[in-house]
Amino acid sequence: VKTCELIIQPWMDERLRKFVQKRLQQAGVAYLLNASEFIALQCTVAGLVVGIAGLCAKLLQAQLGWGWIGLLTLTGLLLPLLSLRDARKRREQRLLRELPVFLDFIVMAVEAGLNLTGGLQQAARLGPEGPLRLELSRVLRDIRTGANRQSALRNMADRVGIKEFSILISTLIQAEQSGASIGATLRIQAEQRRAERFQRAEKLAMQAPVKLIFPLVVFIFPVTFLILAFPIIMKFMYDL
Predict the structure, then answer these.
(1) pTM over the 0.85 mark
(2) What pLDDT does residue 212 have?
(3) What is the dihedral of CA 27, 30, 32, 36, to 10 degrees?
(4) How does residue 140 score in pLDDT terms, banded at 50, 70 and 90?
(5) Rounded to whole angstroms, how far apart are CA atoms 107 and 55?
(6) Among residues 53, 29, 57, which one has the least CA distance to residue 41?
(7) Residue 34, Ramachandran bin (φ over 0: left; ψ between -120 and 50: alpha; else beta)
(8) In which band, very low, low, confident or very high, does the pLDDT at 86 lie, cut at 50, 70 and 90?
(9) Any alpha helices (H) in the chain, and if so which ranges?
């Protein structure tokens, strides 16, 4: 991977680098590898897929055409992207699931007399382990190093890349600038996020029967028919 990174790094476009880096941040793996390393990983996986396929073709005494080579190369390039997409979706689901809990922590701290930064500290200290706790810790670290609180929150929204977080942070910043009650604003946001979480759960529950149709038709129904038809077929065979 390091060798591929050294080869492709001078040829990488800056826009591609920023795009890949943003996707890595949204998936929560930016601390493991950067954009150059991820693209190098793609090239390495593609080379391994083509190499393994070529070895299998040689053992089977078959010819691996250029069309198959191109298809296998594309497959190897797509595998890390699919894995990254799945990691990003899992992280987004977990962030949205944890958001109302952390908002409740912040609301209790703010209504007890702390400011918003103090509420963030209490949520980051007492909240459940997960990606949202890490993001809040990073926000607090940015604030301690001299960054503006609004800028730190906006940076978190950019890293997360979820619409609900962008709406929440924009509402908080607007309430702070207009002098509105931060506690009341956070409580409304917590109730709204909790209602949205319940709606997502209802949507998934309604989608479950539709997703079960394919395994039922392809796997369960044929086996059931075979089990029911076997004694009938055997009876006809013995009668004949």
Answers:
(1) no
(2) 83
(3) 110
(4) very high
(5) 61
(6) 29
(7) beta
(8) very high
(9) 2-8, 14-27, 35-59, 66-111, 116-126, 131-144, 149-160, 163-178, 182-215, 221-239
